[in-house]
Amino acid sequence: MSGDAKAIPVPQSKPHKGRLAVILIVIVVLAIIMAAGAWGLRGQGLRVSAMAKVNMVFDTIKAVKDSHSISARGDFTNVIFLHHSTGHNLIHQGQVRERLTEAGYEFWDHDYNSPGLTRPDGTSAGYSYSIPNDNTDPDGLARIFSQQPTSWPRNALSGLMQHEVIAFKSCFPVSDITSQAKLEQYKRYYVDIRDVVDQHPDRIFIVLTQPPLVPEHTTPEIAARAREFANWLKSDEYLDGHANLVTFDFFELLAEDDASAPDYNMLRSDYRRGHEGDSHPNALANETIGPQFAEFIDNTVQSYRASGE
Questions:
Q1: Fewer Cβ neighbours under 10 Å: the N or C end of the chain?
Q2: How far apart are CA 105 and CA 76, in angstroms?
Q3: Most distant CA pair in the chain: distance in Å?
């Protein structure tokens, strides 16, 4: 280079907002790790709690970095299903992912925080959306929907809202409705959820009613309340006027519907796994209902598109 040549200044790129957010999160992580060390001196319980928070923050970092891979194109083809073990079995034994993929959807699902999020190709995303306390009971779902949605997946609701069709369910312990007061509280939680749904007409929300219990874990009175709750979730009282909220009645498909049977409103005998006290539906149940669930999602999307909402 000659002495007269001038160096060309290299423009400095401005950091992306997402990267700034990640940097801030890293700082928070370091602070939590330091706090975890201090808490560990005071007792094992606090140390475990602190490390859980550290894991949650690291999952948030991974979710933010990976958010570009979740494509919401505005055509309601990006689906996520929040569930626990019963939902896991429904997906795998009922071939839900395969059926929706064939129909042109990207089907994501979220199990317990560990293993967390699964991609449309069936592989693990390597992180979770940090569902608070791993709770998908009505109170846990209401807590998720009470979170503030942000443009990046800072919390569970923001993670779910990256997707266009959001299906969610509670598991069979929710059918243990031991009093009318408990039933009414469950309804209030779902009214709170519906209030949030109304704010997001650019998303479709699919409620799954909870699975029933086996006879060993319930009574006719408790099972009747479980049926009442499921019926309410699919009723006009709950759904009318809320076009982007629909209900897939998982309970109805699993429960004995003969009112004269001793196990009325309980898990049907041919859908039980054969292990006493196990309320997980068996492979026959999932193989039968899985295709219906996939078809329900597709029909719901087609109807919502046609409605022009």
A1: N
A2: 8
A3: 100
| Cβ-proximal residues to 291 (8 Å cutoff; 6+ apart), any chain | 94, 95, 99
DSSP conformation letters of the chain: --TT--PPPPPPPPPPHHHHHHHHHHHHHHHHHHHHHHHHTT-HHHHHHHHHHHHHHHHHHHHHHHGGG----SSS-EEEEE--HHHHHHHHHTTHHHHHHHTT-EEEEE-STTT-EE-TTS-B-S-----GGG--SHHHHHHHHTSPP-SS-SSHHHHHTTSSEEEEE--GGGG---SHHHHHHHHHHHHHHHHHHTT-TTSEEEEEPPPPPPGGG--HHHHHHHHHHHHHHTSHHHHTT-TTEEEE-HHHHHB---TTSTTTTSB-GGG--SSTT--S--HHHHHHHHHHHHHHHHHHHHHHHHHT-
pLDDT of residue 74: 86
Residue 252's nearest CA partner among 234, 269, 276 is 234
Mind listing the pLDDT tens digit for each residue in 151-172? 889 999 999 999 999 999 999 9
**What is the C-alpha separation between 207 and 105, in angstroms, rounded?**
19
What is the tally of helices (H) and strands (E) in the chain?
11, 6
Which of 93, 114, 249, 113 has its CA nearest to residue 169? Answer: 249
For range 3-27, the mean pLDDT: 47
CA 169 → CA 92, 207, 294, distances in Å? 16, 6, 15
Q: How many CB atoms lie within 10 A of CB 111?
A: 21
β-strand pairing of 106-110 with 117-118: antiparallel
Q: Which residues pair with 107 in a beta bridge?
A: 79
Q: Return the CATH architecture of domain 71-307.
A: 3-Layer(aba) Sandwich (3.40)
- Closest Cα to residue 272, out of 217, 233, 197, 231? 217
Residues in the chain: 309
